[in-house]
Specification:
single chain, elongated, about 20% strand, six-stranded mixed β-sheet, 21 strands, alpha+beta
């Protein structure tokens, strides 16, 4: 198969409508082909075209490469955004992984609603990715390798060149007289992908000339299987979920092991947006958290997520890195939003609801957090109740209780934010009151 801009136009026609195209332009051959073909198609596109170059700063030539990209985009009259990142890897971290995290972090930030980022991954990249995932012991989702279209931040990421091989794209680049960057690190076989590309794939092609297209087809089959498993997981999630994004332990026990793990992966990654745990942590959830005693509160944590259990329900959480709030009062005027750590208190004027406004006009309004021994009389109750008892009654998990904001007027709790107004602070039905809500709360789901 040859490559022409017309072929690319056919691929773009299969994508959703976009407000703006961004081309991930490294300056290498593949991304230059993509950029050049898009520039050729400009009169056929209704979508504005932009390019973005990430300067990782890892090579001595990084500055020269940035200049090259600026010159090419100027020649093609394509606006270019250059972003310089610190892609240095930490001890024990893969340099490839660190650079990828830095790069995709920028892409995620820059994409707006209905933007599509176009990347120049091709069929050879797909075959290499499949082999790498196999050698890492990936499941069906990993073996599906790189999808043609996926969500990324507020926009989408598309790979319109997956049907074309590296050699076909290189042939186009030579025909068009393109000048591109050759990154010397791409020949360093200390990196896994480069080892596969330069040492393993040539041997496979000698024995099986169609290796690249065959592996690409395998990835398509895996993607179909992964899609079916996702559909099953969606059905199971609907059946086994409770309020919010929690799962019921009792019903999960009725699932066989494979179906249970499929649901947990979907729940953690697709629903709760956590980093996918490895097999060891996933098995700990199955074998330690689910069968634990009813009054136990087990936890399994991994880098990027944790699962807890409380009152027969599973909670998926981001690991809490912030220290617990102190017992010191935080002064507040009750009029402007108040930022707390990953939380924002927002006052709303509502007739006949909330705290009477006269209590919010003095200088003794403050926000505090539980220290122990607090009590209040919730609206409609005849007696004071300890905060501990109220949290138990409301089913607030223990790890959340110290982070629930308490709105004080003087030395008395006027509102347990998110749960109740306390007597005698409720406004009357004819007056405006202030309802305080907690937005963007970093709490269990």
């Amino acid at each position: 198969m040859s490559f022409t801009p017309a072929h690319l136009l056919q691929q773009l026609a299969q994508l959703p409508a976009a407000r703006r195209y961004w081309v991930a332009y490294s300056g290498g051959c593949d991304s230059h082909v993509l950029l050049h073909a898009l520039a050729t198609l400009r009169t056929h596109l209704d979508t504005p075209l932009h390019a973005i170059h990430i300067n990782h700063g890892l090579q001595m030539q990084a500055g020269a490469w940035e200049t090259h990209c600026r010159q090419v985009c100027a020649q093609l009259s394509i606006p270019l955004e250059v972003v310089r990142v610190n892609a240095a890897h930490a001890a024990g971290e893969s340099p490839e992984a660190a650079a990828r995290v830095a790069r995709y972090g920028v892409f995620t930030e820059i994409l707006q609603d209905d933007d599509i980022l176009l990347m120049a991954h091709h069929q050879d990249d797909q075959a290499e990715t499949l082999l790498l995932q196999m050698l890492r012991g990936a499941g069906l989702k990993g073996l599906a390798a790189m999808p043609v279209l996926t969500r990324l931040g507020r926009g989408r990421l598309a790979r319109p060149l997956l049907d074309f091989t590296r050699s076909v794209l290189s042939h186009y680049a030579v025909q068009q007289g393109l000048v591109w960057i050759d990154d010397p690190s791409n020949t360093d076989v200390r990196f896994d992908r480069n080892f596969l590309r330069h040492e393993v794939m040539p041997l496979l092609h000698q024995r099986w000339p169609a290796t690249t297209s065959i592996l690409s087809r395998v990835a398509e089959h895996m993607a179909e299987g992964a899609s079916l498993l996702r559909d099953l997981a969606e059905q199971d999630f609907t059946q086994h979920r409770v309020a919010g994004q929690r799962l019921t332990v009792a019903s999960l026990r009725a699932l066989d092991a494979a179906r249970l793990r499929n649901l947990l992966r979907y729940w953690l990654f697709d629903v709760c947006r956590l980093t996918m745990p490895d097999s060891r942590h996933l098995n700990r959830i199955v074998h330690e958290v689910l069968p634990a005693a009813g009054d136990a509160m087990p936890i399994v944590s991994w880098r990027g997520g944790e699962v807890r259990r409380y009152r027969g329900e599973l909670y998926a959480l981001q690991p809490e890195t912030a220290p617990l709030p102190t017992g010191l009062p935080i002064a507040w005027d009750g009029k402007q939003a108040l930022s707390l750590h990953q939380q924002v208190l927002i006052p709303h004027l509502v007739k006949g609801q909330g705290i009477a406004r006269q209590f919010l006009t003095g200088q003794d309004l403050s926000v505090r957090f539980r220290q122990g021994g607090e009590s209040c009389m919730p609206l409609g109750r005849k007696h004071h109740h300890s905060l501990k008892k109220l949290f138990q009654e409301w089913g607030v998990p223990p790890w959340q209780r110290e982070r629930v904001p308490l709105l004080y007027v003087g030395d008395d709790i006027a509102q347990i934010v998110g749960y109740c107004i306390c007597e005698p602070f409720q406004t009357n039905p004819q007056q405006e009151g202030v309802v305080v809500t907690l937005e963007n709360a970093h709490v269990g789901r």
